[in-house]
Design brief:
This protein is α+β, with helices and mostly antiparallel strands. It is about 55% helix and about 15% strand.
């Protein structure tokens, strides 16, 4: 598959690959893959909803949460082009756009594989997303890979910076998709609904929360970084042009940009740590985190009533709710949460 992707995008600026072994033959994995919908991906649905919010406010088309399979949604979206489709083996789609914009500008005139390969207008990035199924013993590997290249030097630089912001979210979406396929394979006709060989296929217990405080906190970190890069791009460019070292001294606007961006990875890391507490059942940690977030949110709202500090308070309330003993997960639910949250 690597050779075929090399023909589509040989010199990529960004690349990510994820794989999962599934205890099912390739034809069943293919069937399950084509059936996965956004309703199967609660955390991914939250991330995509946040990213698509500007487009929805502007009335632009977005991928909405609905029971229709994702594969069908992408086929119906003329911004995406099917580049390779070999039933039971691989599916590759591609799109060209200015992905880093709040509402990405789609590249004009791309309606086929040949159009995608020939497109070279400056200022855009070309992305391919592949899913390949490889037989392996009593099961199959499902491998997903994303490659992106810019059509000119500036597009490559801009997308490389944007990729650093969205890469964690992209990884979460890819991994949750693989696990959703595994869960669907576990309940296909003729297969056992419990498989010791693939713990990730254990379905969530009834009543499990679709989105936890940890996921929301990580989402806030990603959103904070994205807003900071866009809002303070001129200040960041000035810091870079001055050599970074001691470049904020005497420049309040640069100092504000620096601290704004420093908060983003802190939020993300707190979300990761909270995810560990959720998955291992440390209720006291969840309660303490909830109280802290609520306190910080209230202080921020008092000082800056129109700021997004209210979001911290909302996440804190969810953390308190998740830390309630009557909501503590059973061992099976906890095992599922480990594979979903980390």
């Amino acid at each position: 598959m690597a050779n075929e992707l090399d023909l589509l995008i040989p010199d990529y600026v960004s690349r990510s690959q994820h794989r999962l072994w599934i205890a099912a033959p390739p034809e069943q994995v293919w069937e399950a893959m084509l059936a996965v919908a956004l309703t199967d991906l609660p955390l991914a649905r939250t991330l995509l909803a946040a990213r698509n919010l500007p487009a929805r406010l502007r009335g632009s088309p977005t991928v909405r949460s609905c029971p229709r399979p994702l594969a069908q949604l992408f086929r119906d979206d003329d911004r995406w082009v099917t580049l390779i489709e070999e039933p039971g083996r691989r599916l590759v789609v591609g799109r060209a756009a200015r992905f880093w914009e709040l509402v990405p500008t789609a590249a004009p005139g791309i309606g086929s594989r040949s159009d995608f390969l020939a497109f070279s207008e400056p200022g855009f990035a070309k992305a391919v997303v592949s899913h390949e199924i490889v037989p392996d013993g009593a099961g199959s590997y499902l491998i997903t890979e994303t490659r992106v290249v810019g059509t000119d030097a500036r597009a490559r630089r801009v997308f490389a910076a944007y990729w650093q912001v969205i890469r964690p979210g992209v990884g979460l979406i890819r991994r949750s998709t693989l696990k959703a396929v595994s869960r669907r394979c576990a309940v296909l006709p003729g297969r056992s609904q419990t498989s010791e060989a693939v713990p990730a296929a254990t379905p969530p217990m009834p009543g499990a929360l679709p989105v936890r405080a940890s996921g929301l906190l990580q989402l806030l970190g990603v959103a904070h970084a994205a807003v900071g890069v866009i809002k303070y791009r001129s200040e960041l460019a000035a810091i870079a042009s001055d050599g970074v070292f001691n470049a904020v001294k005497g420049h309040p606007d640069r100092l504000l940009a620096f601290w704004f961006l420093v908060v983003a990875p802190a939020l993300w890391m707190c979300g990761r740590l909270l995810a560990v507490a959720e998955s291992t059942g440390h209720l006291k940690v969840q309660v303490a985190a909830g109280r802290l977030l609520i306190g910080l949110g209230l202080v921020g709202i008092l000082v800056m009533p129109t700021s997004p500090f209210w979001a911290l308070g909302a996440v804190g309330v969810i953390a308190l709710r998740d830390g309630s003993p009557r909501r503590s997960p059973t061992p099976e639910t906890r095992r599922y949460d480990v594979t979903r949250s980390l």
